[in-house]
Amino acid sequence: MTINSRKDNHIAVCLNKNVQSESTNGFEKYRLVHNALPETNFEDIKTETVFLNQKIAAPILISSITGGTESGNRINRSLLEAANTLNIPFAMGSMRILLEEDSHGIYDNPRKYAPSIPVLANVGAVQFNYGFSRDQCLRAIELIEANALILHLNPLQEVLQSSKNTNFSGLLKKIDYLCSNFPVPIIVKEVGWGISDVVAKNLIDAGVQIIDVAGAGGTSWAKVEAEISGTETAEQLASPFFSWGIPTAQCIEQIHARFPNISLIASGGITHGVDIWKALLLGAKMIGIAGPLLAPANEGPQAVVSFLEILVQQLRIAKFLSQTIVKEKDYD
Amino acid sequence: MTINSRKDNHIAVCLNKNVQSESTNGFEKYRLVHNALPETNFEDIKTETVFLNQKIAAPILISSITGGTESGNRINRSLLEAANTLNIPFAMGSMRILLEEDSHGIYDNPRKYAPSIPVLANVGAVQFNYGFSRDQCLRAIELIEANALILHLNPLQEVLQSSKNTNFSGLLKKIDYLCSNFPVPIIVKEVGWGISDVVAKNLIDAGVQIIDVAGAGGTSWAKVEAEISGTETAEQLASPFFSWGIPTAQCIEQIHARFPNISLIASGGITHGVDIWKALLLGAKMIGIAGPLLAPANEGPQAVVSFLEILVQQLRIAKFLSQTIVKEKDYD
Amino acid sequence: MTINSRKDNHIAVCLNKNVQSESTNGFEKYRLVHNALPETNFEDIKTETVFLNQKIAAPILISSITGGTESGNRINRSLLEAANTLNIPFAMGSMRILLEEDSHGIYDNPRKYAPSIPVLANVGAVQFNYGFSRDQCLRAIELIEANALILHLNPLQEVLQSSKNTNFSGLLKKIDYLCSNFPVPIIVKEVGWGISDVVAKNLIDAGVQIIDVAGAGGTSWAKVEAEISGTETAEQLASPFFSWGIPTAQCIEQIHARFPNISLIASGGITHGVDIWKALLLGAKMIGIAGPLLAPANEGPQAVVSFLEILVQQLRIAKFLSQTIVKEKDYD
Amino acid sequence: MTINSRKDNHIAVCLNKNVQSESTNGFEKYRLVHNALPETNFEDIKTETVFLNQKIAAPILISSITGGTESGNRINRSLLEAANTLNIPFAMGSMRILLEEDSHGIYDNPRKYAPSIPVLANVGAVQFNYGFSRDQCLRAIELIEANALILHLNPLQEVLQSSKNTNFSGLLKKIDYLCSNFPVPIIVKEVGWGISDVVAKNLIDAGVQIIDVAGAGGTSWAKVEAEISGTETAEQLASPFFSWGIPTAQCIEQIHARFPNISLIASGGITHGVDIWKALLLGAKMIGIAGPLLAPANEGPQAVVSFLEILVQQLRIAKFLSQTIVKEKDYD
Ligand SMILES: Cc1cc2nc3c(=O)[nH]c(=O)nc-3n(C[C@H](O)[C@H](O)[C@H](O)COP(=O)(O)O)c2cc1C
Ligand SMILES: Cc1cc2nc3c(=O)[nH]c(=O)nc-3n(C[C@H](O)[C@H](O)[C@H](O)COP(=O)(O)O)c2cc1C
Ligand SMILES: Cc1cc2nc3c(=O)[nH]c(=O)nc-3n(C[C@H](O)[C@H](O)[C@H](O)COP(=O)(O)O)c2cc1C
Ligand SMILES: Cc1cc2nc3c(=O)[nH]c(=O)nc-3n(C[C@H](O)[C@H](O)[C@H](O)COP(=O)(O)O)c2cc1C
């Protein structure tokens, strides 16, 4: 299976099958204490923030899904146009195929649809063990005028999928090397199983400036890969991993406790604005969202805009109504 | 939509739809320790108390529902006549429409049905940011010979409903101003999401004499407003707030711990006399009840009387059988 | 309704309706630690014990159900014959009717069926406030050659049932008076809502020698009384009390912790031998069982014997396999 | 019923009925912390280990099921051939029948199918109280060239099954005697209810070198025996024991905490490689698996190989992805 058709498969499976993690996202363990007397005008509750030195409308990142080469490209376009309309950042899916193959024919430059927002390049960190170089990273940045480069860590996905790139040795050193004097910030993310505080420490020591935890509780790639392979054996192999990973809220709380100054993106299983506000109060600077955007993106840019506007409105309401987060178990 | 037809809608939705909060009222976290040997004559278990300097038959307040202007008025009358029959206090719903519009034609003076019980006036505190004045509060009192004035805080309801009065800035100062030399006590309440200890502190500092927590666990106005607007978007926007708020029992326990001298009314999700007794043992002086009265009120005053008599009897039984409340988690 | 027909009603309801408490019996909070190497011959695991100075085959009491005057009497006889066959003690149900009315015609002396086992007389303690005297207690003992007198405390049942004897004032003093120089030991029990450590203290101070906790988790008399009255109002009144009471295991643990020397009977919701062994390890000397015996008793004495033999065998197995009980929450 | 036909019955019941314990295996109380950056090549994740001084492919033992005399023998052969193919150890089921009866006609020497792997002999420790001798243990070892001797402790099974050998007195001394100068290591195991730390201490003091906890959470022999006897009485007797026992994970954690140097085998309810890795991180050296192998073994050796290969692969993945185990309750 080529990377390209695998990508199409991924999207189809995520749209049509239950690929929801059997772990929660962890935010249910926290409660926002209601403030009946906000002493604010709701109109003054803003969501604007600065990300990658650029003003954006809300601390919401469209997380990596499409790499710009997918056949059809409807989803890619919807997401980009919506991001541009709303002025929120957009992260590319893995650009490996773009950089490795002669794919100019199918390449769809995101800047065509999203000239002004922050756009983030994306490659799998493990590719550095499979011939991928610093120069290709630079080319990825250049190609799309990227404002940052995301390296994704996906060891569980790699071991479950058919074309396995599973040599994760020595990556930290290579990430460290990449971080020195790279023209844009380096972000490291998972793909749905979370970053522990220990991994965060290593990444920070290596010079990573932003961590996107991409924790458990949303899209489960163990489920996606089991669905894609379709065999009973693959399903059986993957099934104990359907609840694998560190819930998103725990990642944020634990990393923020140890490294209060590192920029954190909370992603993995975020579906509404109340959890966004919880994530921000727990220490995240931004949140990311991928799987829940697929269905609206398949409809068109307006559906994505509407969906995200609801999230922004929920975030504003939650922010209006609460400034304090407590752990459920401490609260009772 | 005019205030009036909105009010009718509210009542219809509360009567016919599931508007129950997805939070519990919190009383399930407490246990009444059974006393097998009460050493009392059950006949001597009384529920009489004093509220607003008046003797009443039980510490039960009919919470704010109707404002005296509703078309039909059946519910209004049922509740008033029942309150008068039982000698328990009655709180008006928001009187804003009465005070703002020329509504003398439809105005139904509560004193016609309830000459002798404590009747409480009610206005939304946020109205002070929308032209409402101290004088109108005085007129509200005068109009119904009110024994107290309730100010309700409903920030979440306001942001979810169509005609939003969502400027909640500077209200504390205005409440403070109102409290000085006002002829009757000022009560502040929520409408189903609770008062935190921090909000309680601010209200007490401003001179508020009675706090009605109106916590989570009963009628959920997020559900009511979603039902009323009827659109999928409104439902999606409101849904993460279906479990919002501080459960009633937690409000009472936390405020009472910090401010043992403030008069507390426990309301929000109270449906039987065992929870009434728990509320009183946790520090409340009175309890309030709104949503569960709608169905009997729709039937007629006798149904309300019967319903409330059961609550009073349950309260007497619980009081007869237990004088000690413990936290479930400490008990085991 | 006469006492007699009420009694028949009680039995019919307990046989045919769901009268199970909505509380658990509390034993699920304790775990018996398995001993894989018991170092014993299972044949040597005995259940014999001494109760009321008499050797009995197992620490199992047939709890108070029938008072010897019931029409039909099938259940009464089954239980008595089974108790006699197995050599376990039998407690009469309330003997008030026997003692107050001219009921010699229907009186069925238990000693006819159970000449040699301990038989316990039973009256409601509250009857001391309704004309019942020490002399009648003595006559009760004499009538059936009772080995002990049980006083039951049932304040919740009394307030819920139609013919209410609900004056529970001053009972402690009367119990104290009865205890001095009474020819047989006085046992005090509840009827399914438990004895707290505070009540236990008062009873012990009054001279009571044995306490039968009769805690929550088995037959719920709130449900029985609601079923019997059959009206919606009675059901509504009683329903918050369907989970009322102190679970049996908690009663035992708490009373035993404070009063290690008092003889305790664990009853209320005991249905198998594993819970019997838990009860004994928690400090009980005996267990009692009522509701679960009705169905076999309705079949005949052999069904009761078979049922109880299973319990005894389960008790022997549990005793063989575990000598240590721990709290679940401490264990993990 | 002869031992032989009982054995067949056991297998049929385990294959066709729900014999799953109502206790969990306890591993759900522990979480493997995900490591997004393993810094290893997945290809380098090995499962080889040494067991009984022999190199084996994975720390997985095929637990005792068949004794080599079963009619049909299909399951026996499948398991042996699979173990040999995979190079993992195989434990015989109880060899008592082989050693007591003239069963040479039906005896199927495991070494025919599994010449090179570790094979473990198995007898019930309780047999030492029923005429079984040290010499017979030596003959068991010799007969199959066993690398170790497993003694199983099954007091609950014995009391529930029809032909009861239930004298468990004085076994520790006999185990102690057997352990001195026995030619192969002695392993003691349960059969699905676990070994407590106290029992472990006694066994270690007696000279036992390896303990297989065989805890609760998998095959429940209380259910098996109830199914086999088929009567309602047997079902009623056994049912409170359907959740009996110490969960496997708790056994491992508690014994390892007190005796960090004893070799532990984790078995009972292990069905996938994630729990295998948890068991190893909690202190086990090996894991054992019985019930879940029956269905594949009934199909044939290849099905067993495939099933176990999945477990090994899951173990490799879990080991690749996590090196840290935490208690859920400490983690939040
Ligand atoms: C269809 C699809 C494709 C994805 N492709 C990528 C990718 O190429 N690179 C990447 O870093 N993450 C990729 N992800 C992972 C997401 O960025 C995100 O981390 C993960 O889905 C968890 O977020 P969610 O619960 O909001 O979906 C993809 C997710 C989906 C649903
Ligand atoms: C139909 C309806 C109308 C209400 N109108 C008012 C109102 O006008 N003013 C107010 O302070 N609260 C109003 N409330 C809120 C109640 O007073 C109460 O705080 C809330 O419903 C929670 O109590 P409950 O769980 O017993 O319903 C209304 C409630 C209902 C059900
Ligand atoms: C039909 C029936 C009649 C009872 N009558 C009496 C009684 O007369 N006196 C008494 O002390 N308890 C009486 N009880 C209560 C029982 O003795 C016992 O305390 C209670 O049912 C809880 O035990 P259980 O869960 O095993 O049923 C009766 C119970 C039943 C089911
Ligand atoms: C059909 C069957 C037969 C068994 N026979 C034996 C036996 O002869 N000796 C023994 O020590 N354990 C025997 N066991 C118990 C297993 O070895 C194991 O300890 C128990 O089943 C728990 O592991 P599981 O949950 O993986 O099944 C048997 C188990 C099964 C399912």
UniProtKB/TrEMBL annotation, chains A, B, C, D:
Gene3D superfamilies according to UniProt: Aldolase class I
GO cellular component, one term: cytoplasm
Residues holding substrate: 6-7, 94-96, 157
Catalytic activity: isopentenyl diphosphate = dimethylallyl diphosphate
GO terms for biological process, alphabetical: isoprenoid biosynthetic process
Cofactor(s) needed for function: Mg(2+); FMN; NADPH
Subcellular location: Cytoplasm
Pfam families reported for this sequence: FMN_dh
EC number(s) from the headed UniProt entry: 5.3.3.2
The FMN-dependent dehydrogenase domain, residue ranges: 172-317
Function: Involved in the biosynthesis of isoprenoids. Catalyzes the 1,3-allylic rearrangement of the homoallylic substrate isopentenyl (IPP) to its allylic isomer, dimethylallyl diphosphate (DMAPP).
Family assignment from sequence similarity: Belongs to the IPP isomerase type 2 family.
The name this protein goes by in its record: Isopentenyl-diphosphate delta-isomerase
Organism: Flexilinea flocculi
Record lineage: Bacteria, Bacillati, Chloroflexota, Anaerolineae, Anaerolineales
